């Protein structure tokens, strides 16, 4: 299965996550960044256009052979669905309609979720906000690979398989390592999604639903846009736990590549994150950064110093409930 990774444990640190302190320092020097807070009025129209784009292609899917369907799903539909997942990420931060309209954001999350095929909008939010607040916490941050993942997928071939199966690990890991009772809105999310999927099958056939589901699956695995899953927090340089990417794929991913800026200022919508970097350039220019998400995936697989163990972890000091 190829070379074995050199690491045998995660990188344990005893400092707080870096973003809250850096945010405080930056705001002391550049208080005008607060003017960038709030929702993006263009966001809802971009997301609506992407959803409609997926709906408009469904009548044509039944005429596609399976090889053509897979190519279209990988190169087109999957990219849109991945962008919609990142739209759900923006919505989780209430950046579609603002913090004073939480229900509007949740309902729009249901809408953005539709072409993805699997109900994720509400569940993602309740875990993702903890990832921001407790980054690296061994118990709370479910973005961290489990010890079992790190031990099983510790060779070149193993890491390649892990990337391919990443949609399952990313989606199911929270339910296994930190299960929470489903909220009423999660159940609503499930009902709406199942109804939508049934309507797609009724109107356009089962192949149309497979087009949506396979696109979502493939674009979360070994795919250029999925490189952000690895680039954001895997430790490519010792001691650094968050990395930004400033390349062109940000144009179709709501600037999720500006990840240091996002963690420093989660109240700033993706479209305005480049302005954060421009204003506070001296805080970001010298941080390690990635120039290619595809290169990130390649290096993750081929570099023995990188793998599921290459994450910074912190001990959980909270009281047991």
Automatic annotation (TrEMBL):
Location in or out of the cell: Membrane
Membrane topology: Multi-pass membrane protein
Domain Sphingolipid delta4-desaturase N-terminal residue range list: 5-43
A Pfam family matched in the record: Lipid_DES
GO molecular function, one term: sphingolipid delta-4 desaturase activity
Superkingdom of the organism of origin: Eukaryota
This protein's GO CC annotations: membrane
Family of this protein: Belongs to the fatty acid desaturase type 1 family. DEGS subfamily.
Name the UniProt record assigns to this protein: sphingolipid 4-desaturase
Classification lineage: Eukaryota, Metazoa, Ecdysozoa, Arthropoda, Hexapoda
